[in-house]
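debug: dumping io for the single-chain case to check the tokenizer round-trip. Nothing else runs in this session.
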Amino acid sequence: MGLLAGSLYWSQASPPFLSSGFPSSPLLAARRRAATRNLVSAACCANEESPVGSAGASRRRTLLLVGISVFPFLKLRAIAADGLLVEESQSNGIGQQSYMVQPMSFRRRAKTIKQRVTEVDKDKQDLILPDNQDILMPDKQEVIMPGNQDAIVEDKQDDKLSEIQSVKDTMLEVVIYSYPICLQQAALQNAPASSFVSFLNEFGIVASGVLGALYATSQKEMTSIESHVESMKDKLTEKEAEMSSLKESFEKILQREQEEKKNQIRNFKEKESSLLTQLDSANGTAASLQLELNDNRKLVEELKGCISDLESNVAKTGRDKKLLEAKVKEKVDSINVLQDKLCMLSLDISDKEKNIQDLKSSLSEKETECAQLISNVEHSRNEHAVANSTIEELKQELLVAKTELSSKISSIGSLNQQIQMLESEKDSALQRVQDLIKDYSDLESSSEKRTALTSELLSKKDEQLHLLEQKLELALEEVKNSTIVIAELREEKDSAKALLERETIRMKKLNDELQANIEALEDSKVEASNLSKELEEAKVSYKKLMSELSEIQHSFVEMEKLLTQSVEEAKFSTKLMSDELISVKENLRRNKEELDISSKELNDIIEDHANLKKELVETYKKLENAVNELKEERKIASKLNKELEVLRKQIQRDSEARKTLEADLDEATKSLDEMNKSALLLSTELESTSSRCTSLEAEKDMLLLSFTEQKRAVKEAREDIEDAQNLILKLGNEKENLERRTKKLEEELSSAKGEILRLRRKISSEKEHSSVYQPKTEVTAGAPITARKTNSRRKKGGST
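debug: decoded output
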């Protein structure tokens, strides 16, 4: 009975003991294995009864003591039962039973979890992998969505059921494995027994009675445990049914959620592809915008250079315009001064024209006076001709007298006697004749002096007349030239007036053009100021745009960084999730918390994704606004370029107008110089005319003086002629007296014959000489020559 009880006890108690001892810690497991081996060996040794009594008693005592020492290890059955009761009481938390009750090591638990996960994954590859392949496999970057939590929970519940089944299988395997080991130990114990084995057999025999008593209690416990296990099995079947229904419902929900998740994943993929395309397009637009910005910067720099050039040109043009305005003002002042001078010159010209008219009137008067003088000179010439005729008559009379004397020479011979006879009377008469000769010599000297004076005066007057004629001719020529000059001056005056009128019209036009240019310059300055203001505003807007673009770029870079960080975080989170899935299977609480955190993070990521979408939309709007603003700036830049071209054209026109103005001003200055020269020439000519007028007035005065002198000389000549006529009459009377006294003057006549012949020769030679040198003035030159002849004759007569 004891052996049967022991064998039954070990056959029934060893599986729960091993099953309870299997999931324990490795140290307890080793101790339990040693205890079971000892017990099995004791049970096996109990079948053999040794004949030796005393040795067996001692051995039994030792076996009793060893059995008593093994009793604490037998309490593990109760611990295992308690573990089963805990499993029954915590049926709702299936996953938590195995980890809370079974104090396994971390490595063994990880290995068992990995084995169970691989088995579960192999069982559910057809359900999870096709549906969740897009979730778990997209480049190991995407995150598992929160909708997959139910599938994960179902997987974990299936894992729990599989764990329970695997625990049962392992328990059966351990029992099956441990039983042949016990048989082997028993077979080994059937070998030749040693002293210790015999001691153990004896101790087993002694302890069989004690263990038989304990068997009843253990059997009761076993029956209660079996009933409890059956109730637990019923509950497990019910829970398995519930779990199957839950699995079906979960599978349906999972299919729905998987479809929804597939749709969401597709939508997310489409959105992500659209976002990626949008990001690519945004990158492309950003690159194009950067290129456009660089181009715009270059254009702006070029525009700045052009604007600086234009500002310098405008400054230069302003300076040139100021200089031109100053020059124009100076020239306007000079023109005004010249106009004043011209007015003064016109006044002077008018005055001089009046003077010229007065001079003309005076010249006409002088011409009349000259005509009168010429008539007087002609009258005097006529008188001289009459005097010459009288002298010729006297010459003829002298010739007649000479003929008479020649006729009387013949009578002189006859008279010589009478002369000789009359010499006595001659001596007496000589004294009278000497007195008369003295008187006659005095008269001759006075007459010679008078004739010399008259001849000198006549020669002087002739010379003066020649000079006057020449002067008159020159004056007439000068008057003609002066009339021609006056006509030319009038023409020049008319041309100068026309030029002045043209220049006044040009000056008015130039003033109008200058005013228009000044207005255009003011308008251009206003436009330049407006353009500078617009450029400053454009620069400010450009700076704002650049700052906004830089902010957008910074925000875009930050967004890219955030996206890359979020993607890296998502990758890292996926890696962490993949790493944490293992840890989640180890700790469901932590997994739930991490899933909640991941769901929150996913919600945050979705919110961030939505925010990123909004920000991308805002960035697109900003980019569109920036593109519109860039287009507007391009339009403004094109307008500015057009305005700059217009300004350049205006500046070119202004420069051309300035050149034309400068040319006109140069022409005006040249014309003004010419006018000044002409004015100077006119002034010099006027001065020359005034000097000529003064010289003419002086000549007029001289002519008047000479005319008065000539009048006086003519009067004196008339008086001299009258005196000469009186003298001729006296001489006639004296001739008569001499004729009466011819007889007394026969000797004188005879001496006078030779002298007369000489005088004739001289007269003929002098006439020939005078005809050679003075053919034109025969009449005028004849009188003084005859006078000189008479004077010489008289002198010779006086000398005789």
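debug: round-trip ok. The chain has twelve helices and no strands.
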